[in-house]
Amino acid sequence: DQQVKQNSPSLSVQEGRISILNCDYTNSMFDYFLWYKKYPAEGPTFLISISSIKDKNEDGRFTVFLNKSAKHLSLHIVPSQPGDSAVYFCAASPFSGNTPLVFGKGTRLSVIA
Amino acid sequence: DVKVTQSSRYLVKRTGEKVFLECVQDMDHENMFWYRQDPGLGLRLIYFSYDVKMKEKGDIPEGYSVSREKKERFSLILESASTNQTSMYLCASVDRGLYEQYFGPGTRLTVT
Prior knowledge:
heterodimer; A: mainly beta; 6-stranded mixed sheet; B: 7-stranded mixed sheet; 4-stranded antiparallel sheet; 0% helix; 54% strand
C-alpha cells in the first residue's frame, strides 16, 4: 500500500513558467517531508524539505507547500529552466533519523525551451 | 561535503553469478541504505543498517543480503543474480537523528 503517492508520472512545462509537482500521503504520523531531484545515471540529490509545523518553505526558485489537513504537499519551481528537467521524488518520514524515508514513485519534469 | 561512493557505475553480470556492490561514505554516518530504482516503481528499499553488524530488511529483500563490517562501508550482495535484478542500485547514508539522506552516484547493473 503506497503511503506516498505522486500521481503524475510526467509533466511538461515551458521555460520561464511555473512547474507544480504534487505529492499525497496517507500516514498521518509523517512529520517531515523532502524533495529529491534525480538526473539520469546519477544519484538523487536533496532539493528542499519541510517540517510538519510549517506550511511553506522557500529556497530560491523552489518552494514547498504543505497542507496537513489534505495530506498534500507540492513543489513549485519558478521560473522553470531547462536544467530543471529531471525526475523529482517526494519522500516522507514519521520521525527523525532511524526510520527509513518513504519515497513516492517520482514525477519526470521536462522543461521545454 | 558528504561523499558517498559506489564501487562501480556500470556492471554486467551473468545469471547465477554472485555479485557484490560496495558503498562507502566518508561522514561517519550511522545509518546506511540500499535502494533499487526501476522505471515507474520509484525508489524501493532493499536493506538498511543502523550500525556496524546491524541490518534490517526493507521492502524487497528477497534475493539480496548485506554486510556492514565497518561503519563507513555497506555492501549489497546478490547471492545468485537473476535477470529481474537488472536495475539501478543506489546507496545512501544519513547521520542518526537527521532526515536528509545523501546518495551515491548509483550502479547500473545488467544481468544477462
